[in-house]
């Protein structure tokens, strides 16, 4: 069996790497500094599969991922997994109670811990990094005056201590990760139960007119197709021009979906299937802190 090459938003110690380790049975894992770099590697054939963050329960969609999948590459979502996100305040091993003047992390992680930072570190300067794993690397280099927000894996990989555990503002903090491919290949995943099957479609309207979105939704509604998410994103062709991303809670079939497509095309809309895939929910065990 050919070894699958899997890319992810790195470096080691990111939540994406935790998701990859939880889902895949094995393979050759390749770390990328940014989401575009990972998706470009899939597009160019450097790797077979990419795993990137798609949506967080607190901060919403990762727009960079969505926009890059729509506008820059031609890839299909072939699976998704949802994992719990536990954010911790990580400090240098030489930290002994000094004032923390810098806090480093990814913008979404900072936002997920806004109230904690506002209450406990109102004067600390915030620095944004490409990932939580990269933030841990920065703190390792900076010294005891700096701290990072990240997970226990980032702490372990960089020799940092967990000063405060679970500092995110809301307990139900989860992130969905998209597993994407350009050329379909069989995934070698661990034996996790499939929570549901989903299909994600992109719908574009011919123009903005009264009742346009209602007509789009009606094409799904009267067929009793449940929609778990609807989101608008700019087409990048001018103000007021949007496309809609729709998650349908069922796999693609040869009856209902073609019917929806024909009905929408009769209205002048366009429908593109971005993927039909299994959805996994995986619990990552919390670390035992000191």
TrEMBL record:
Known pathway: Amino-acid biosynthesis; L-phenylalanine biosynthesis; phenylpyruvate from prephenate: step 1/1
Cellular component terms per the entry's GO annotation: cytoplasm
The EC number(s) this enzyme carries: 4.2.1.51
GO molecular function, one term: prephenate dehydratase activity
Descriptive protein name: Prephenate dehydratase
Family annotation (PANTHER family): PREPHENATE DEHYDRATASE P PROTEIN, PREPHENATE DEHYDRATASE-RELATED
Highest taxon of source: Bacteria
Positions bearing the site annotation: Essential for prephenate dehydratase activity: 175
Keywords: Amino-acid biosynthesis, Aromatic amino acid biosynthesis, Lyase, Phenylalanine biosynthesis
Catalytic activity, as annotated: prephenate + H(+) = 3-phenylpyruvate + CO2 + H2O
An annotated GO BP: L-phenylalanine biosynthetic process
Every ACT domain range: 201-278
